[in-house]
Amino acid sequence: MTKVTVVTAGLGVPSSSRMLADLLSDALKAELSLSGSDATIDVLELRDHAVDIAHHLVSGFAPPALAAAIRNVTDADALIVVSPVFSGSYSGLFKSFFDVIDSTALEGMPVLLGATGGSARHALVLEHAMRPLFSYLRARVAPTAVYAAPQDWGAGADNEPALEQRSRRAARDLAGMLVGRSPARPSYQIEPSAPFEDLLARIQAPTP
Amino acid sequence: MEIGVFTVSDVTRNPLTGETPTEGERIKAAVAIAKKVEEIGMDVYATGEHHNPPFYASSPTTILGYIAAQTERITLSTSTTLITTNDPVKIAEDFATLQHLADGRVDLILGRGNTGPVYPWFGKNQQDSVELTVENYNLLRQLWDNDVVNWEGKYRTPLRNFTSTPRPLNGVAPFVWHGSIRTPEVAEIAAYFGDGFFANNIFWPKEHYQQLISLYRERYAHYGHGTADQAIVGLGGQFFLARKSQDAVKEFRPFFDNAPVYGHGPTMESFMAQTPLTVGSPQEVIEKTLSFQEYFGDYQRQLFLIDHAGLPLKTVLNQLDLFGELVLPELRAEFARRRPAHVPDRPVHTTRRLSTVTAAG
Fold it and tell me: DSSP class of residue A129?
């Protein structure tokens, strides 16, 4: 059973970010079932944690509901993350959520990126803002990322595969990363220290 | 069990009056608070170390030396002494001197500091923080435990045939605690030397510290200083107290809401639910404090933060009077009742340390 956590930073109810997130997670489920594996999908609406995220920023620790949400993300086998585009980038809420997660907790995490915006002209937010963020976190980002503009929810644009097709392709990328993946990611926790004498020896060893 | 107070030495505006005390007033207040700590029967007064406003305590042994002259019984400690940016030679000298003046009533909690720019201010690099801690503490131990030191390291000029003076009182260095809120290496250092481990848990939930403390206990046993439950653990805490719970809440809320560290964030109620802060009746403070023993095991030192966030001196002294009368006796009795006979009551120098000293003497 693959545990997939979906993070969406859309603010409306329903939001187009949530709609895209659902599309991507349905596509992933379908892809995984082709290879005979099952997935549980948990959806995290950051809107529900907005105040807790702000409290975490000022107090330095997560209130219980947010702590559970963070565990849901760090313990997942894969993430689907979707943000609306605000002022040319991911939303502040989206970034703040990943700011309060330990910067090493997502190392090696397979991640599928999605974004939504009021115009197709912001599509490169995926490559210029979201991909660098997850590269910094040393996550494994799926090569295909999906942007949904308003017209994608209708007829779509000429000469462009429909949103469903792009979602399937992205889901195929992520499913491929999961099927061939190394054993389950260990649950994130504090790494123990090296023994004291090794710590000391490392300082005194000549630098290579 | 040692029970005492520690200060972060902040100079903060009183949100009720709008007045900010002067640095001088806060420094004199530190002395008054320490004397009150002794008067009500607590055991420890500890001061922080900072090198930037709004903090006054850049020179802890000066303050503690002055307090030593005006007290007779309490242990003088630090919260924390920066092992990263201070020269270990100066730490060895300052605290050995203080030991002689205070007739041995001295120990210290080492920490890495939490202000990034302190590293460059003292010519160090924050990236080297853990290495500085390891190397500096290893040198500090040698300076105290060996009469003659020949030493060479990465971060300090070498020492040849060097003797740190004065020698520790009666040949026994001050007890050392290692404070950390997130670094397993610090727990490892404390365990290796059989020193104490102090978890200043005042701002974060307990789950965060359980892992670090059990790591320390496990390694303490690994190095043969005793069993895991004999390891020397200290914890932070904070309270605001009134005979009636609702009075405490009413009086403290403006200070909480405007506190530099957690003000304008979570509500006081959610902060109380998640961190060691208790604002309430004596019984509530007693129950919360005893719950630490249930989470972390038997421990040896409990320090409370009581003079921050602009609380006026008069209020702080009054808090201590209430604590001494209504909380301290019951806490002491209950901690004593719970502690098994094989667990040390107070910090003790481990066999490793004592045998070293005996061999040297």
Answer: I
What's the structural domain count of chain A? 1
Give the distance from residue A55's alpha carbon to the nearest chain B alpha carbon, in angstroms: 5
User: Average pLDDT, stretch B161-183?
Assistant: 94
Provide the CATH number for the domain around residue B197.
3.20.20.30
Reduced to 3 states, what is the DSSP secondary structure of residue B169?
Answer: helix
- B200-247 pLDDT, tens per residue? 877 777 777 888 999 999 999 999 999 999 999 999 999 999 999 999
Q: Using a CB-CB distance cutoff of 8 angstroms, which residues of chain A are in contact with residue B262? A: 58-59
Which chain B residues are within 8 Å of A64, Cβ to Cβ?
274
- How far apart CA B296 and CA B294 sit, in angstroms, is 6
Using an 8 Å CB-CB cutoff, list chain B residues near A189.
211
Nearest to A59 by CA among B71, B202, B78, B292: B202
Q: Note whether A55 contacts B: Cβ–Cβ < 8 A.
A: yes
Distance CA B52, CA A14 (A): 49
Chain B residues in contact with A58 (beta carbon < 8 A) = 262, 264-266
- A8, B109, B347 from B301: Cα distances, Å: 45, 11, 8
Write out the residues of chain B at the interface with chain A, using a CB-CB cutoff of 8 A: 130-131, 134-135, 138, 153-154, 182, 184-185, 187-189, 191-193, 203-205, 208, 211-212, 215, 262, 264-266, 270-271, 274-275
Residues 6 or more apart whose CB falls under 8 angstroms from that of B80 comprise: B48, B49, B108, B109, B110, B111, B113, B179, B198, B200
Contact B208 A191 (CB under 8 A): no
Q: Given CB atoms, is A172 within the 8 Å cutoff of chain B?
A: no
**Rounded alpha-carbon distances, angstroms, from residue B242 to A119, B217, B290:** 59, 36, 18
A33: number of Cβ within 10 Å: 12
Please report, for the domain that includes residue A81, its CATH number. 3.40.50.360
Mean pLDDT, chain B, rounded, equals 93
Q: Rounded CA gap, A130 and A144, in Å?
A: 12
Long-range CB pairs of B286-290 (<8 Å, 24+ gap) are B286/B327, B286/B330, B286/B331, B286/B334, B288/B237, B288/B239, B289/B237, B289/B239, B289/B327, B289/B331, B290/B331, B290/B334, B290/B335, B290/B338
Give me the mean pLDDT over the B95-118 stretch: 94
| Cβ contact, residue pair B270, A63, below 8 Å | yes
* Tally of domains within chain B: 1
Instruction: Read off the pLDDT of residues B243-284 as tens digits, 9 standing for 90 and up.
Output: 999 999 999 999 999 998 888 888 999 999 988 999 999 999
Distances (CA, A) of A207 to A116, A203, B133, B153: 48, 9, 19, 13
Structural domain including B320 reads: 2-360
